[in-house]
Fold:
Amino acid sequence: MKLLLHTCCAPCSIYPVKVLRQMNMDVMGFFYRHNIHPFSECQKREETLKQYSQSIDLKIVYQSDYKIEKFLQSVVFREKDRCRYCYYDRLKATALVAKKGKFEGFSTTLLYSKFQNHDQIRKTGEAIAKKYHLKFFYHDFRGGWKSGIEESKRLNMYRQQYCGCIYSEKERYFKK
Structure:
């Protein structure tokens, strides 16, 4: 299958790309950046992904704009449910690029994280796939969580400590 993989960062892509290639998938990445705050964080993640993807010969499509305002406007007053919107927006953007690029399906490295809501991601991905006549490839990559972390440390990668948005940054660092 020719698969477009939404790729949130280099460390989270290590294990999924390895598994997908072992499954003989023709994988290309897609870096979505509108939810990542601050912009300097977005740049660090993108640069790390560029270095890593070159080292493993993984082609990546990078967004050229940065619509943090749209992301914030879409979640304001719905902060507790922001992940639902974020999953939808990232997966929809991935599906649109997949459709344009004549991919058979799409997936996401969010499925590698033990902190993400897999049921919600799966339902969202499947609904979007149906709308755009694509396949959403669900695979639970959490079994490789520890090995991905170890490999990212071995490679001395920049490793972020929060999902990406300003709200997840606050949850990670602000302790009352």
In short: The radius of gyration is 15 Å.
